[in-house]
């Protein structure tokens, strides 16, 4: 049984580590993006409401995000635990999650906070390149393509996403620090945060996460 939350700024490597965690512990990876897409695709009432806000280019309000996330936690595959990623995003959402879990006789075990310096995040994200044809990801420093600007897999053209530019990254990191970083303080008070240095090699980061979560 493992109920955990994964925190960290954009570019910290949460996605990579999430895949490893769910494989090792055999728990579902629950991200807000996936929940939104699933509900919208299935035409649920919550999905329709979320779609209305997204169509207007507005943020989905806290209450609706909480309803979508907690509804997902009631699914059968969450009985033996879950990994939350992208939720909670604010202290208010964290408080509501705690209330929901308590009402169901549960609580979070460990909150993993992957920390990376802003300069490193900017280098990581601005170096990302994606294939227009097949969607494969590369990095100009870490995973460079054999031929610059060309996908190794299908020969398609590589491009930099609009939200991977320096200005966009700095905005995203600033937004994370303002809205989500206070969550680290919130969970530190609860005594269940483990901070991991995300600048370490991927396998080392995962080994530290396993040490924090236990076998």
UniProtKB/TrEMBL annotation:
HAMAP family: Adenylate_kinase_Adk
GO biological process, alphabetically ordered: AMP salvage
Top-rank lineage group of the source organism: Bacteria
Catalyzed reactions: AMP + ATP = 2 ADP
Protein species of origin: Anaerotruncus colihominis
Quaternary state and interactors: Monomer.
Listed EC numbers: 2.7.4.3
Pathway: Purine metabolism; AMP biosynthesis via salvage pathway; AMP from ADP: step 1/1
InterPro entries the record matches: Adenyl_kin_sub (IPR006259), Adenylat/UMP-CMP_kin (IPR000850), Adenylat_kinase_CS (IPR033690), Adenylate_kinase_lid-dom (IPR007862), P-loop_NTPase (IPR027417)
Protein residues bound to Zn(2+): 131, 134, 151, 154
Entry note about domains: Consists of three domains, a large central CORE domain and two small peripheral domains, NMPbind and LID, which undergo movements during catalysis. The LID domain closes over the site of phosphoryl transfer upon ATP binding. Assembling and dissambling the active center during each catalytic cycle provides an effective means to prevent ATP hydrolysis. Some bacteria have evolved a zinc-coordinating structure that stabilizes the LID domain.
Protein name: Adenylate kinase
